[in-house]
Amino acid sequence: MENQNPISFASPDLSSFSQLGVVMEDGEWVLVRKPAEKEFWNPTSMDLADTSKPLKVTFSGPAKHWTDAIPIGNGRLGAMVWGGIASETLQLNEDTLWSGVPGNYTNPNAPAALSEVRKLVDNGEYAEATKAAVKLSDNPSDVYQLLGDIKLEFDDSHIKYTEGTYHRELDLESATAIVTKISGSKPGSLSFTVSLDSKLHHSTQANGKNQIIMQGSCPGKRIPPKVSANDNPKGIQFAAVLDLQISQGGVVHSLDDKKLKVEGSDWAVMLLLSKTPKSNLKDVSVEMKKVKYSTTNSYFGKSDDDAVSTAERVKSFQTDEDPSFVELLFQYGQYLLISSSRPGTQVSNLQGIWNKDIEPAWDGAPHLNINHQMNYWPSLSCNLKECQDPLFDYISSLSINGGKTAKVNYEASGWVAHQVSDIWAKTSPDRGEADFLKNKAYPLLEGCTSFLLDWLIEGPGGYLETNPSTSPEHMFVAPDGKPASVSYSSTMDVAIIREVFSEIVSAAEVLGRKNDSLIGKVREAQTKLLPTKITRDGSIMKWVCAQLDPNLC
Questions:
Q1: How many other CB atoms sit within 10 Å of the CB of residue 277?
Q2: CB atoms within 10 A of CB 540
Q3: The pTM of the whole model exceeds 0.90
Q4: Of 395 and 129, which is predicted with more confidence?
């Protein structure tokens, strides 16, 4: 919501216009009537204690996608629980499993490259400066890896079940990791096979009748696309032990020295321990008591009604803005931070602590421009100070490596870090990959640009316009006094088009394609895009005409 307070002046007296927004176009004041106030939050009942629900994320069926699985974690170990029937998978992560080894993040040739880039910028040779800036860059960051999977295969008796009776939940008040208990509805009815596996270079072996041991290593360097992890071993070494305990009367067999088979048990408990040379096995239970307490204080009471799945609650929220669901979302955010960052653990990475891929999106690496900070936004405001300890430990590591980068690369004092880092506290800038730009990004830009050139139409004054056009989440009051959202050439439309055109021109310069016919059309279109208009108070108009800017719905 934007500020809807009327603008006041010493003279003339505009007090009678308290319901009007004031904007300006071409030196003239235009008075725009404000829309009627809306009820933005309208739950079906304001009796919060009655409408509240337990702090549980619930599901009515097994996960079909990784994002439907339930995340659990203790800061160092994490898992995604799928909740399968005939088979079950717990995908495992350990926060120190990264590719690579510690590196040297300095470049003695950087000062000369920096002088060259600055000179080109001063001369207005921006495309040349863009090319020269590559010399300032270093190799990309290393990549967050995955530990492996606990796989459970149940006997045929588990396949048949009444679908409506399925219930899977994450209880935000009692979730712990990583101990798993499985029990049957009848004595002696639990039978299954359990194994440990990994996409990394590894070996597994059953140790007696109650343990499976897995040992392996992360890649010693980033893995090029379509290369098996086994072709590039000898990075961080790791070991994991799965310990199995069953009830009296149950039997455990070893299968092929790699799996364990449980038969006729009432219940089974699985405990996982994983360790790398960088692991910190400090007991943080005392530090986390206050953190745990902060997530168990509900301000909306309690209810035993948890039959409705979270997915159904998301849908119903469109018509029933249940305040307890807002609380659940808030508490879930706290839960994710608590589960991925605790005293003595590694800093929460781009995906917290959870990852299913050898090549995760954006490497799973801390992105220092904004994403990394977003992970820790709840820490102080939600009384989770202990959870931000790893963040400041990490910043301390960055300052050590960054001091060397600042001195060598920029001949400066202090310390510096750039956009992307990793577990090794990389502080040098990443190098853009030319192959990616040529084979992936540029073709996508070409397609987008071709559409935009066709979408633009010539309007009055020779400007290129978009029609129809909207500004997301905003409406305006039309000249006839009616609310509307469709017009032409909204500021957002033009801003996005201008950005796409700018990006493809820059990319064409780097790839030596500045003389392509498409680029010629783009350069011509750039000069015909509507300029961004500014009001007297310095704000940007959302609409091309002042009378369409209500200040603002």
A1: 8
A2: 12
A3: no
A4: 395
